[in-house]
């Protein structure tokens, strides 16, 4: 029998309970959350806002809350993401300093990417820390850099297979756009997200290979579209290609 810890924080407990409610009910309003948790509406609203910020919930146009991608995107398994972070952080720090923009490291899990490390730009207006955030792979520069490595039949199977994550069974227009984006990525050697995931944000991404040459992660340089656009996108992309040899995943440890 499990007892509630004597040192438990009520705000943490309420946030975790709210995650269970979202997962089980599928949709909840601020009033319902307040009633179920036994807290004020203002408290429930703050908790839901934080869950939205961390991708555990999304708010629709009716101001109701639904489970976010962090609840249904598969966990990163069988990959030492902590080692990836420690191994690549020095070169990520150099890239952030030399480009003046935020550098992100991500891995792909199915049709989604999850950001696992960030080195933020020193500039006042910058892209913030995205650690833990999950986004559709087909829309991000990191995701496109990794998807471009798949064989055509693998890509089709990935996006034509069933699922309830909103990314399964793409419509024809979405599918054709994805195919074009990946062709461009292969031609250039780097991927671009020009405000596809967030208005005013542009990112340039490149695959990060392991010692066998397979892409196991991807790195992006992201910044405001006012700074990262036009010729600057090409400059960053070519710069990342020059850094490719330094961008290597750590060797597998012997078992």
From TrEMBL:
Residues 9-69 form the HTH iclR-type domain. GO terms for molecular function: DNA binding; DNA-binding transcription factor activity. It comes from the Bacteria. Keywords: DNA-binding, Transcription, Transcription regulation. One of its GO terms (biological process) is negative regulation of DNA-templated transcription. It holds the Pfam family IclR_C. Residues 70-253 form the IclR-ED domain. Gene3D superfamilies: 3.30.450.40, Winged helix-like DNA-binding domain superfamily/Winged helix DNA-binding domain. This is IclR family transcriptional regulator. It comes from Tsukamurella conjunctivitidis. The lineage of its organism: Bacteria, Bacillati, Actinomycetota, Actinomycetes, Mycobacteriales.
């Amino acid at each position: 029998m499990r007892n509630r810890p004597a040192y438990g924080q009520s705000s943490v407990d309420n946030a975790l309970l709210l995650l269970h409610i979202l997962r089980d009910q599928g949709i909840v309003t601020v009033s319902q959350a307040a009633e179920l948790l036994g807290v004020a509406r203002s408290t429930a609203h703050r908790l839901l806002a934080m869950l939205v910020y961390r991708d555990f919930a999304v708010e629709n146009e009716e101001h109701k809350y639904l489970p976010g991608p962090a609840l249904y995107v598969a966990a990163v398994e069988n990959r030492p993401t902590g080692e990836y972070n420690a191994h690549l952080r020095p070169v990520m720090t150099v890239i952030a300093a030399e480009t003046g923009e935020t550098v992100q490291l991500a891995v792909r899990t199915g049709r989604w990417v999850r950001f696992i490390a960030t080195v933020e730009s020193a500039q006042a207006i910058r892209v913030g820390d995205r650690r833990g955030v999950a986004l559709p792979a087909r829309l991000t520069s990191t995701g496109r850099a990794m998807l471009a490595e798949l064989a055509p039949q693998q890509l089709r199977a990935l996006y034509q297979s069933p699922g309830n994550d909103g990314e399964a069974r793409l419509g024809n227009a979405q599918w054709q756009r994805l195919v074009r984006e990946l062709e461009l990525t292969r031609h250039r050697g780097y991927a671009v997200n020009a405000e596809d995931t967030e208005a005013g944000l542009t990112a340039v991404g490149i695959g990060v290979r392991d010692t066998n040459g397979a892409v196991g992660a991807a790195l992006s340089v992201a910044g405001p579209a006012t700074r990262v656009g036009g010729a600057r996108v090409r400059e960053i992309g070519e710069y990342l290609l020059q850094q490719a040899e330094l961008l290597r995943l750590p060797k597998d440890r012997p078992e």
